[in-house]
Structure formats: structure tokens, C-alpha cells
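note to self: dont lose this again. the chain is below, predicted strucutre after it. 133 aa total, dont forget to put it in the shared folder this time
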Amino acid sequence: MPDLNVAAVMSIGAVAFAALALLTALGAWGSMRRWRVRCESLESNFAALRRELELVASISVRTGRRVQRIEQEYSGVADRVELVESRGAAGSFDQAIDWARRGAEPNQLAQQFGLSSSEAELVTRLHGRKNLA
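---
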């Protein structure tokens, strides 16, 4: 009978080992499944993040273009303000009016006195020589 007990113990050990192996395999499978779900979630989040980054980059590029355009459009404003401040507005207009009365063209007034083309045109129309027909 002692052989029987050893065989029974060996069988019980084998069954226990098989049960433990099965539980370990099921645990590993569940863990793998959770990791797979987590990875899919992360991939989805990365895809959404990538789309948002592309949108931000697109907005940044458009904003950069707008800033460049504004800088180009207003690049002379600082120089013009400095010129206007240095010339004293009333004196320059008085001188421009005198020049317009003597027949100066708007582009001459703009260049000489730092007037905008609109200002020079207005001074010429209001104070320039009248066209004789």
C-alpha cells in the first residue's frame, strides 16, 4: 500500500500543479487582455492628440502669416510716427500748404513733409493752384 499512497500523492500533486498552471494561465490571459485594452485606449488618445497638434500647428501657421502680413502693412508706421513727431504737425502742414500754393504736387508734399498720400492729396486739393481751363 505504500506505493499507492505515493501514487496518490503524486496524482494529487500533479492535479494541484495543473490547477495552479491553469489559474496562472487564466491570470496571464486576463492581464494581457487588460493591457491590450489599455494599449488601444492609449493609441486612441495619441491619435486624438495628434489631430489636435495638427490643428494647433495649422492655426499657428495661419497666425504667423497674419502677423507677417500685418508687419509688412504697418512696417513704415513707426518711421512715419517718428517723422510726424519730429516735424511738429502744425508747422509741417503750414509749410505744405505754402508749397501747394506754389504748385507742388502731392507726392512732393508727402516726401518733403512726411505726409501720407491722403494728407498730401487733401492739402493739394484745398490749397493748391486751381487748374486754369
